[in-house]
Amino acid sequence: MFPKIKKPKNLIYLDHAATTPLDTVVKKAMEPFLGEKFGNPSSLYEKGREARAAIDESRMTIARLIGARPSEIIFTAGGTESVNLAIFGVARFANSVGNGFKPFPTRKIAPHLIASAIEHHCVLNSFQALAEEGFKTTLAPVDGDGFINIDKLKAAVRPETIFISVMLANNEIGTIQPVIEIGKWLRGLNHQRLANHLSPILFHTDACQAAGSLDLNVDRLGVDLMSVNGSKIYGPKQTGFLYVRSGVYLKPLIYGGGQEAGLRSGTENVAGIVGLAKAFERAQDEKLRNLEIRKLGHLQGYLIKEIKKKIKGALLNGPDNLKLEVNSQNNNYKSSADTVIRRLPNNVNFTFKGVEGESLMLYLDSYGIAVSTASACSTGTTDPSHVLLAIGRSPDEAKSSIRFSLGKTTTKKDWDYLIYGVA
Ligand SMILES: *Cc1c(COP(=O)(O)O)cnc(C)c1O
Q: Can 208 be counted among the known catalytic residues?
């Protein structure tokens, strides 16, 4: 299976779902704030005002792109922090005394939170920590393609439920969840709950993987909270934002000088915020995005077809876009005017039965090809991927899996090298 071939001159980077390189345009936008524009945005003199203006402008850009108000954008240090702020913020606010918001005035019942079983570890491990703090949590199961089972999600709701988190797109297998449908259902349900003096259920989506491919208008999605990071959209690492719909109250994770409406104290990462806004602007530019999706979708389809043809027993993990295009009436997401997708166009994930994923990853690395075994975020553990187990793969199959994630620089030549050069 492993013939010797010539190593390509440049690294073939197929791990864009782990992180993306910094766009040169983004880097350029950041540079002044790493140099002469070093002021503290809280300072009232010129140098400070210059930094404050850059933050304000970045906030307005992001708000406009997702159909929100600037006051609804909280800058954070990445996707993990945004998600933690959403989860702990909502849970601890519901439990805090004297905030004027008493979800369960007559009962001493712990608030209950729900997430899908295939969320990123920043959700799952937050849920575990919540349980240790006395909150109740439920993980809702997914089907064989990774789609959340909406009936089981509905069945998991209790009177004391206050929060549901369902990621917009999965980082390992690219499944795009029916967030719009869940949002619609929750709006109806919350009407009934309010009439019955129950707390409304807040809806959060982790959109970190989706920001490069999908429209993130918060009203269209029907979400109250949304997490996005810079690291997956050719922006700087350790940057991100949490969208918080006005009227939704959170407890901060970090206390101090009261920056970011009191929800994220500490001197702002001005260069990072400017870079995040620039990266997000490019990621959400409809014209650029549609071109990118078409290109990546094409390369994705080609790779899936070739791997299935060339490698016996290779199992695709996650939904097959090619097949689903035929049955488009139940698709929720339009990436552009004419493409309907249920899987991120940059994600290909296969189980190669009998091959150890980690060995294959290292083998490909020796040929200058960077891929990932599960999510980079859980590297260092030898546990099989919780996502692959949740869609029904056995632990052995899960450990025999490889994720290829495409990006701006990926070409068909990379595929041909991967398929005909190495395999
Ligand atoms: C990468 C990622 C995160 C974590 O974001 P960081 O910026 O690395 O903290 C969270 N959720 C998803 C779906 C991701 O892909």
A: no
